[in-house]
Amino acid sequence: MYRYIARRLLWAAVMFLAVTVITYIIFFVIPADPAVLAAGRSARPADVVRVRHYLGLDHSVPYQYGLFLKRLVVDQSLGRSFVNRRQVNTMIGEAAPVTASLVIGGAILWMLLAVPIGILSALRPRSLLDRTAMVFVLIGISMPVVWIGLVLQYSIGFKAGLLPNAGYCDMINPPQGADCGGPADWFRHMILPWTTFAILFTAIYVRMIRSNVMDTLGEDYVRTARAKGAPEPRVMSNHVMRNAMLPVVTMLGMDIAIALGGAIFTEYIFGLPGLGRLAVQSLQNFDLPTIMGIVVFSTLCIIVLNLFVDILYAFIDPRIRLE
Amino acid sequence: MVDVRRPSSGDALLDVRNLRTYFRTDDGVVGAVDGVSFTVEPGKTLGIVGESGCGKSVTNLTIMGLNPKTAVVSGEALFRGEDLIKASPKRLREVRGGEIAMIFQDPMTSLNPVHSIGTQLVEAVVLHRDVSHSQARARALEVLNEVGIPQAARRLDDYPHQFSGGMRQRVMIAMALINNPSVLIADEPTTALDVTTQAQIVRLMEALQKEYGTAIIMITHDLGVVAEIADDVVVMYAGRVVEYAQVDNLFESPRHPYTWGLLGSLPRLGAAAERLVQIPGQPPSLLFPPKGCRFHPRCAYAFGRCRVEDPRLMPSGASADHLQACFLDEETKASEAAKTLSAALA
Predict the structure, then answer these.
(1) Closest by alpha carbon to B326, among B297, B294, B291?
(2) Cβ contact A165:A157 at 8 Å
(3) Which residues on adjacent β-strands are paired with residue B102?
(4) Which residues are CB-neighbours of B200 under 8 A, at least 6 positions away?
(5) Of B97, B156, B247, B267, which sees the most CB atoms within 10 A?
(6) d(CA A239, CA A78)
(7) What is the C-alpha to C-alpha distance for residues B217 and B60, in angstroms, rounded to an integer?
(8) How far does Cα A42 stand from its chain's mean position?
(9) A229 and B128 in contact (C-beta within 8 Å)?
(10) Which residue, among A217, A221, A228, would best test binding to B if mutated, counting the most B CBs under 10 Å from its CB?
(11) Cα torsion at B169, B175, B180, B186 (round to 10°)?
């Protein structure tokens, strides 16, 4: 068990290095000069040179990467933004809870919808419920997130005026001067983003759970359970679900991990100051430290959740031995 | 059409009468089981033989009420006089695993991979008996010992993947016998096992039958297993019973060309033949069964009547106890049966 975790962590470190190196290379391959951007529109060439030196961009790329690693490991610091000189750690610390609100709330919503619909569809294939569900799945998968977001914003937020159009309210301690705050406001502001974010995943998960449950229902051990005299609810809960949910756990872990790095479309549409919006902004500004910060954060999310899923898996499925 | 019945020697434990199981499919109605009758007596073994798809498994799943929802069932399956076909789902659950237990073909997939075998055995007990967990566990340990699992106490908490195929089938047998059922339905229990393990499992079932007086329905396509363990044999073809006799009668004077084919296709050690003998052709589609005798397209003896008229199960000339469904005259049958047997024994 410990050896397994140690090996996984070693792999994670290698993966981390690979991801950050590649991000660095991509950044410097792009033919744009971040110093010019940072110096501003009316800067003279001498100013640009000064800014380049100030930002450390006059060093070689490997040296800059080394410096980035050293700062990260020794000071646990991601440096300062090229654009506004704020600590990247602080910026990510502000944006991550927003994205986490969106992703975790969205995941709860899509699982609450997908698990019962998927199971019921699997139990009654070709029934009216199943057919209706499958039509909605097709629609859900086909609709672009951006379009769903705009439609919801326009219809429910603007026309009906039922929910706020956009913006984020801090749940626990809203910043001074904010016009809203607290759990109730937070929840109201999150309903439309959650819905937008969850629709695609609900569709995907309904289909996946349905097919997993159907496959599992055809397994010999399910027949064995029935031959033992087990009533149907017990067959489902004890024999079908645990096996059918194994692949779902993996997918859920991965989807949440990837989305924690920023649910770009949803955040952008609803003006949520999360990691996705931060990523778009920093990419537009060639703000290397912030980009690296987001890459580091989302890589960590993926590594940690992956490890968590693997360990969880070993508990659910005895065939998997962690050694 | 009601089949002629064999005179039974005592009270039948399970009396299956004119059982039909039809499946509605997109292409039409499939008559998987089409008027099957047989009886199982206490402590005796009934062998059901036939090719894949002849309806032998469906017959037994129907008795247990385990068919998919698309199945349409008629006929009777009287268990101690109670018709299981009409029984409520609740009553069927009591019967399943309690009074009638089943073991299946593939022990590798018939146990739930995420539960320890102890958990699965305990579940079988508590579903039928009002006992504490520790009592159920003690019973699980007891049956595991009976079926010959070495170090059973230590292995109770192991998972199915930690057992070999033969051991898993022993676990399946233990699970089936844990509530002392009066009927054990074994659906090709040895097919997925290697030959030495097959023999062990058959011997184990015989021993347990002797000890507990359990009646066994042995579904198989292995005539060797039937010869070894069965008292009576039902030969099925395309959803119908074509021959039904005591095991000795069946092997000494088979009365149906399909049975001759089955006996003739047994591989023999030392035989000079380069190829295995086989019954020509394929089993018919049950969606569009052939008119007349269902075996006639593959039968070397078919004549005009076989193509138009459906043979009923009738006592053979030799014995009222030996039922067969073939229009051939008795002399031809006797001589052909003798030829088949001498070839099979050569």
Answers:
(1) B294
(2) yes
(3) B185
(4) B166
(5) B97
(6) 48
(7) 9
(8) 39
(9) yes
(10) A228
(11) -40
What's the Cα-to-Cα distance from B330 to each of B27, B249, B316, rounded to whole Å? 40, 15, 8
For A234-269, the pLDDT digits (tens) are 999 999 998 999 889 889 998 998 888 878 888 988
Say yes or no: ipTM exceeds 0.85: yes
Phi and psi torsions of A30, nearest 5°: -65, 125
**3-state secondary structure at position B15:** strand
Q: How large is the angle between the packed helices A288-316 and A246-260, nearest 10 degrees?
A: 170
Q: In what order do the strands lie in the sheet with B28-40?
A: B28-40, B14-25, B71-79, B82-83
**CB contact, 8 Å: B172 with chain A?**
yes
B183, B203 contact by CB (below 8 A) = no
pLDDT tens-digit series, residues A64-99: 888 888 888 888 888 888 888 888 899 999 899 999
Q: How far apart are CA A157 and CA A209, in angstroms?
A: 32
Contact A3, A323 (CB under 8 A): yes
Query: CA nearest A193: which of A98, A281, A279?
Result: A98
- Which pair of structure tokens corresponds to residue A89? 């750690």
Closest CA to B277 of B264, B268, B260: B264
What homologous superfamily does CATH list for A89-316? MetI-like (1.10.3720.10)
Q: What is the DSSP letter of B274?
A: S
Q: Within chain A, which residue ranges are assigned CATH 1.10.3720.10?
A: 89-316
What's the residue count for chain A?
Answer: 323
Interface test with chain A among B93, B122, B183, by most A beta carbons within 10 Å: B93
- Between strands B100-103 and B82-83, the pairing is unpaired
**Strand-strand pairing, B100-103 and B183-187:** parallel
CB B77 within 8 A of CB B14: yes
Q: Residue B302: what residue type?
A: A
Inspect the interface and report whether the beta carbons of B96 and A221 lie closer than 8 Å: no
User: Is B118 within 8 Å of A322 (Cβ atoms)?
Assistant: no
Chain A residues whose beta carbon lies within 8 Å of the beta carbon of residue B183: none
Q: Say if CB B186 and CB B218 are below 8 A apart.
A: yes
Least confident window among A106-115, A300-309, B58-67, B291-300: A300-309
pLDDT tens, position by position, B101-123: 999 888 889 999 999 999 999 99
